[in-house]
Task: inverse folding
């Protein structure tokens, strides 16, 4: 994931690593290609780039698994006997692992948003990014966030549902992290009876453009709205840009003069996992 404002850039990569007796394993599964490993895992986001004119490197957005109370001897990884399962000391930490990272950068200000298994969090990389601490924006059953700077404030949008089986609805926060340490309570945005999720954001001056998808895993549409007012105003005046089928996962890009949207689309009744889709893109006609 990367973001830029024309002068500065920020990029982030999410990783999950496991050390096999201090040697890196191939992936993060407990049963790892027959290897018995010491589960000293770290789920982390590596952030690099420029913020406030200062290089950012290795921001400590890291969740580490605990070291065992009794140290095991250092030795090469050995094969697991048939049916044996390697010990898992990271179960509690897995819920706090950061993923689905979104970035926003503007005029030296950088904000990193991400989700865990039970929350949306934000990390404001201010004058001293090494000392930055994440702030929980919302807790619950959440989807991936989208984020963009709009003047002095950051706009943050994500999907969230109240319970298992309930439809997802878009939630939004507009917040100046330099003025207040914690964001205001999220606003629930009414989009209709179908689930709304996978939001995308782009800001052009004072105008914010919001896109999202509505539906389920086999039939969905992509909608987009723009406003110079509140994010709810963008939703109230949104239009459907997909032309049928199972349209999913919109992305936005913009400049001072133009804005573009792209999404993936599959035949009706075909899920993303079944393949056979196409990528569609268009320039948006915005006021």
Result:
């Amino acid at each position: 994931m990367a973001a830029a404002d024309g002068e500065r850039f920020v990029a982030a990569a999410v990783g999950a690593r496991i050390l096999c007796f201090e040697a890196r394993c191939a992936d993060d599964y407990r049963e790892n290609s027959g290897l018995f490993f010491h589960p000293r895992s770290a789920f982390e986001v590596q952030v690099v780039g420029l913020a406030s004119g200062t290089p950012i490197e290795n921001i400590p957005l890291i969740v580490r698994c605990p070291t065992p109370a009794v140290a095991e001897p250092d030795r090469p990884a050995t094969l697991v006997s048939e049916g044996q399962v390697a010990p898992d000391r990271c179960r509690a930490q897995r819920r706090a692992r950061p993923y689905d990272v979104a970035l926003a950068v503007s005029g030296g200000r950088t904000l990193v948003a991400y989700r865990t298994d039970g929350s949306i969090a934000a990390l404001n990389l201010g004058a001293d990014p090494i000392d930055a601490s994440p702030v929980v924006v919302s807790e619950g059953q959440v989807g991936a966030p989208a984020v963009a700077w709009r003047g002095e404030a950051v706009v943050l949008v994500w999907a969230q549902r109240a319970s298992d089986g309930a439809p997802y609805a878009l939630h939004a926060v507009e917040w100046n992290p330099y003025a207040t340490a914690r964001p205001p309570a999220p606003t629930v945005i009414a989009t209709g009876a179908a689930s709304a999720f996978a939001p995308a954001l782009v800001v052009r001056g004072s105008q914010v453009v919001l896109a999202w998808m509505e539906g389920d895993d086999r039939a969905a549409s992509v909608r987009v709205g723009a406003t110079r007012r509140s994010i709810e105003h963008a939703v109230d005046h949104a239009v459907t840009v997909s032309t049928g089928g199972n349209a999913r996962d919109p992305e936005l890009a913009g400049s001072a003069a133009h804005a573009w949207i792209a999404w993936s689309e599959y035949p009706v009744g075909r899920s993303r996992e079944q393949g056979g889709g196409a990528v569609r893109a268009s320039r948006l006609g915005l006021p």
Remarks:
- Helices lie at 91-94, 231-236.
- Confidence is low (pLDDT under 50) at residues 17-42, 64-82.
- The CA atoms of residues 123 and 134 lie 4 Å apart.
- The chain is about 5% helix and 50% strand.
